[in-house]
Amino acid sequence: MSTIDRSGAQTEQTPPHPVYLDARAEFAARFLAGDGLEIGPLHQPLAVPPYAKVSYVDRMKSDELRREYPELADWDLTDVDIVDDGEQLTTIPAESQDFIISNHFLEHTENPIGTIENHLGKLKPGGILFYAVPDKRYTFDFRRPLTPIEHMVADYEQGHERSRHEHYVEWCRLVINEESDSVGSPEQAASEEWVARRALELEDAKYSIHMHVWTQAEFLELVLELRRRFGNAFDIEAAARVGIEFIVVLRKAGALPPPPPATATVAAGTTPLAASVARLRFRARRALSKLRAEIRRRRARP
What we know:
Elements: H1 23-31, E1 34-39, E2 52-58, H2 62-68, E3 82-83, E4 97-103, H3 112-122, E5 123-134, H4 149-158, H5 164-174, H6 186-189, H7 192-204, H8 216-229, E6 234-242, E7 245-252, H9 262-268, H10 270-300
Parallel strand pairs: 1-2, 1-4, 2-3, 4-5
Antiparallel strand pairs: 5-7, 6-7
């Protein structure tokens, strides 16, 4: 049965493809070394090799994040080392980092082009950007339309305030029946009055939603457009689809550092094992969280 209706809209969430390559572990071992940052790790920091030292960045401390997102109550959150806006990184000196990891963060940014530009500015020449973004077909965003490159360029050139409210409205209308308290039931989402009211509430609270959505093809098109726009300021080292996400590794132009000792680490199995354990813990906790949310919903029914 097709998951696309006659208008071209996706009507069902697509199951993710099998994992043919553990790209998180493989790319981390091959490309991450020295001192760097991970932005917004929450409950799933990237498993990095021993020759990479990470400082964790988020917009508030872990205890504040837990209060901000009660749906994360059952998760172990990563301790935050640096409180900063991950889009701006104003506390981080220019050209000071060997790498920046930003997994499932870019979709939350209001200005993804400006964010990537800022991240490039914080890297040393030859430094690495490690990005993973969800493919909207495999997530709760499946009903939402793809974000056109022209929209993101306008946000970059004219200011992201121009489109902020429409993102919240789209979120409230098309993201339905999820664990987050930010979304409603199908009946609520069908009510323009509820959508308008809830969108304003979330916007006023600066609640973090997925502002932009992509599939792997559209995100890669964005990366290629930015390479042209930024005058070949970076190259694409690697890209892969893994489950619900798409991963790209970008290297800033400049003198190349020596390759990290990844071959021995991967051969010994340490980095993939650590990543596999972290991934199993994540899946188990997600299943437990969904079960608890379902129990709460059933108890709340009249």
